[in-house]
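Structure first, sequence second, as always.
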C-alpha cells in the first residue's frame, strides 16, 4: 500500500521501499543495487552514481503524482535516459516473457479459447516491442545528439509527443477476456488468477512509464532543445571573461577541465570517456555540470572558453 508523502534526500532508502514496495522495480532501472543498509536516499544514489534529485522526482511523481517539471532545471536528462532505457530492457527481456510463460501454464492444452488468448497476448507483446524499439532507435539517439551539442535536424520532441500513443489497449482487452470468458478447471484457476494479478501490475507499470515520459522526460527535452538552439555564445563568453574580473575556470574541477579540453580538440563523448577512463554517462554528467556552471552549452563556446582560459593551445584545436 502506498504511503502518500513527499520523500526527500535525507529520508532512509529502506523507509521509502517499506512505504512503497512498487519502487523496487525502479531501483534496477536507475542502476541502484540492493544492500544499501540504513543509508539515506542521497547516500544510496551517490554510492550508485545516480542523480538524487532526478531519482526523487520520478519516485514522488509515481507515488504522489507530483508533476511540476515544466521549468525544472535540476532534472538530469542523462539520468532519465538511463532510467528509460533500462526500463525498456526490464519490460521487453524479462516481464513480457515472464507473463507469457505464466499465461501458457494457466491455460489448458488443446483449449481453443486459450489459444486465442495467447494470440491476443502475442499481438500485444509485438505492439509494445515495436513502440519501445521506436523510442530506442529514434528518440533516444536524438536526445543523445542534443547532449552532444550536435542535434539532429530532422526530429524534435514535439514529433515524439504527437505520436506517443497509449500502448495498453490490447492489455486491457486481454485482461477482460480472461475475466469474462476464460474457463478454467480448478487445478489451473489459482495459476490463472495469479497471472491476472501480474497483468494488472503490468498495466499500472506501463501507465506510470508513459506518464514519466510525458510529464518529466518530455519537458526536460523541450528545455534542452531551447538551450541548444539559443545563439548566445558571444553573450556567455563575454560574461564569462569579464564578469568582475573573475576567472571562472577556478570553479571547475580538474576532471571537468579535462572534459573541456577533449571537446575543444573535437573529441566525441565516447572518445573523451576512453581517454579519461570514464563511462560515457559520466562524461555526459560532467558536460551537464560544466554547462550549468559556465552557462555554455555548445562545443564552439566551450572551445572558446578553453582557449581564453589557457586550457588548450589554439594550434591543438580542431576548427
Amino acid at each position: 500500500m502506498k504511503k502518500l508523502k513527499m520523500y526527500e534526500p535525507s529520508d532512509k532508502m529502506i523507509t521509502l521501499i517499506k512505504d512503497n514496495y512498487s519502487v523496487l522495480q525502479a531501483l534496477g532501472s536507475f542502476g541502484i543495487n540492493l544492500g544499501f543498509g540504513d543509508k539515506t536516499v542521497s547516500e544510496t544514489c551517490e554510492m550508485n552514481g545516480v542523480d538524487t534529485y532526478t531519482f526523487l522526482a520520478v519516485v514522488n511523481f509515481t507515488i504522489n503524482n507530483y508533476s511540476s517539471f515544466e521549468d525544472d532545471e535540476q532534472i538530469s536528462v542523462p539520468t532519465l535516459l538511463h532510467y528509460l532505457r533500462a526500463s525498456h530492457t526490464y519490460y521487453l527481456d524479462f516481464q513480457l516473457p515472464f507473463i507469457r510463460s505464466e499465461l501458457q501454464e494457466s491455460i489448458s492444452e488443446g483449449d481453443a479459447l486459450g489459444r486465442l488468448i495467447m494470440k491476443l497476448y502475442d499481438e500485444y507483446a509485438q505492439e509494445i516491442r515495436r513502440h519501445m524499439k521506436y523510442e530506442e532507435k529514434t528518440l533516444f539517439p536524438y536526445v543523445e545528439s542534443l547532449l552532444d551539442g550536435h542535434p539532429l535536424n530532422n526530429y524534435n520532441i514535439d514529433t515524439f509527443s504527437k505520436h506517443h500513443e497509449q500502448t495498453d489497449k490490447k492489455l486491457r482487452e486481454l485482461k477482460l477476456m480472461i475475466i469474462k470468458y476464460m474457463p478454467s478447471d480448478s487445478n489451473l484457476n489459482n495459476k490463472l488468477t495469479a497471472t491476472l494479478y501480474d497483468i494488472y501490475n503490468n498495466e499500472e507499470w506501463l501507465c506510470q512509464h508513459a506518464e514519466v515520459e510525458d510529464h518529466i522526460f518530455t519537458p526536460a527535452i523541450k528545455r534542452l532543445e531551447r538551450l541548444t538552439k539559443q545563439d548566445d555564445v558571444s553573450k556567455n563568453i563575454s560574461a564569462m571573461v569579464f564578469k568582475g574580473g573573475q576567472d571562472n575556470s577556478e570553479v571547475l574541477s580538474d576532471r571537468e577541465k579535462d572534459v573541456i579540453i577533449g571537446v575543444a580538440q573535437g573529441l566525441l563523448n565516447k572518445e573523451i570517456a576512453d581517454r579519461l577512463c570514464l563511462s560515457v554517462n559520466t562524461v555526459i554528467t560532467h558536460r551537464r555540470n560544466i554547462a550549468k556552471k559556465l552557462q555554455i552549452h555548445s562545443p564552439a563556446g566551450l572551445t572558446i572558453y578553453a582557449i581564453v582560459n589557457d586550457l588548450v593551445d589554439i594550434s591543438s584545436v580542431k576548427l
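Margin note: The two ends are 58 Å apart (CA to CA).
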